[in-house]
Amino acid sequence: MNILITSLGNKTNLIKYFRRALFNEGGGRIIGVDCSARNTGKHFVDEFILSPHISANGYRAWLYNTIEQQGVDLIIPSRDGDLLLFSQWKEEIQSLFHCAVHVSEEPALQCCLSKTRFSEWCISHGFFTPRIIERAAVTEKDLPLFVKPDEGSGSEGAQRVASWNHWLGIRDALPPGLLIQPYYDAPEYTVDVYVDGTGAVRTIVPRQRMLTARGESIHGRVDLNPLIIDATRSLVSEMVFESGLAGHNTVQCFLYKETVVFIELNPRFGGGFTLGVEAGADTPRYIVREASGLPLEIPDDYAVDGLQMVRVQKDLFFSETGPAKVYCFDLDGTLCTESCPYESAKPVPLIVKKVNALYDRGHTIVISTARGAASGANWRTLVEAQLSGWGVKYHRLVMDKPFADYYIDNKSVDILEWI
Length: 419
Fold this sequence. Notes:
The chain is α/β, with parallel strands linked by helices and 419 residues long. It is built from eleven helices and 17 strands. The relative contact order is 0.12.
């Protein structure tokens, strides 16, 4: 399967987790497109293509040509500004190219992309949400307030107003189109929700936002609170039925005095989605499986309660010059796909290309595998034949790597982060 991610930007985690999904679901390529070449995501995709801006007259023709040339099977629109157009185009894309587009129906997007419309929808359907206060109607009794743009993501343009003097000082300078609501001093949650192709809500993972930066969670904790799960299921199911909400969605809410207070619904992947995936709701893999026509097999106890995530800045270094080194590569889930019989494993073209480039520059390449570690079977003949057939260049094959769930080492490189 070949996946195209739009508005690639710096969404390295999105790339990593779809790459991992491909490792487990038969392999494929990831193509990233963006109207700017100044991004970090391009280092992690199989191919980066500079695109016109989505508002340009020629974007649609360019997109269709790219889908055809690259053999794209699945499109992941990753930015709010992409969603509406891809929703309008998805049936034609499916018809012309047999390519799936992971996006909700237009009515759901029209509701969710405006925080005001989402709040009004919640009120009209009986879900708790902060009331909207008109600017001219704000009184001192309404304090504290939270002011944020009606559209957009992250925390840009949002601020808490704690005092009357603060309000008077900013009131007349505030731009139009802002949403003014009471501020809730309560635990805040992001809830990752997956709606499958039949409209069924399959997974719900609430995660408390312990610490945020620029509107994204940098310390989160899974909290399988039944109040949040039940309220979110009711809200999402109603929107699926009424408006065509689909796929991966990110719901934000407060838990205020045993009441779930909804504040917004982002119909796409959010910045902290990785915690929900690692807790057990592997939505990138669900998306790949559904686009491949495969069923979803999700156990009832899919999520791990209490799992925490701390996001740290990570510096990655790469160079095409320097002295010769020894590089040791794992096999399954690194050079080839996993979660399949060994005989059915397929190479990962991007990784094979990088390994061969290291070999050609004079580095020593060692392939190490734990195949047979548990069973005692000897897989050397098969591995040698596969490496030869895949065109992998290497110096030595090691067959006695011990099996482990985690390898902790001071020289390790995550294959999903290898530039």
